[in-house]
Fold:
Amino acid sequence: MLTPAEVRGLDQSLGRQPTAQILRWAWERFGPRAAIGTSFQGAGLVMMHLAKLNRLPFPVFTLDTGLLFPETVALKRRLEEFFEFPIETLEPDLTVAEQADIHGPELWTRNPDLCCTIRKVLPLRDKLCDLDCWITGLRRQQSATRADIGVVELYAFDEASGRDIVKLNPMAQWTRDEVWNYLRQHRIPYNPLHDRGYRSIGCQPCTTLAAPDANERAGRWTGFNKVECGIHTFLPKKLDFQI
Ligand code: SF4
Structure:
């Protein structure tokens, strides 16, 4: 595994490279132990297209919380047809009904951090155990919480094992306009909810319409002091709740 000093050096050198070049480096370094994780926002779609175009057969996975919009579920099938590769679906251990039995109904209305941990963070952590490099579609322009991300980072996802993996953000420098110009130019299927004014699309109960000039993560967890689901900012050091 890479040392922190090596990661810093790679971040400086790869950070100036085109996205396709960054993806090529990941494939040569990690092969199929590097995987693209996507919730089908624009940047993830661009990366899938670049990977296909450059014959970099990364595994691709997505998280299905059981609370996604039907449009998002349908988009996954359209993308598998368009790209002609499978997209693995990660699911939580608990169904929505089982979660309601244990924690009460509509946990997202009372404790969205716990809900996100059960439905997103823990399934992701299980997946990362099988990887050496997690490739994300994070962009610096998306929000204040993402403004300082590196292109190459170390990610301490599992305190129990102490194992870090490389987190690669090859889209870090892309603007929203660049992403959408690319999608249109290559006629890549995207979530039709964007055409109805949704900026960032997550679970149905926690995604609302936002003003066109709002930041790109606007409309998520409205009414809560929460702007990230936790997969990029919070992996629980120890589980102090029952799931
Ligand atoms: S986004 Fe909302 S519904 Fe989805 S896992 Fe997080 S709190 Fe639960």
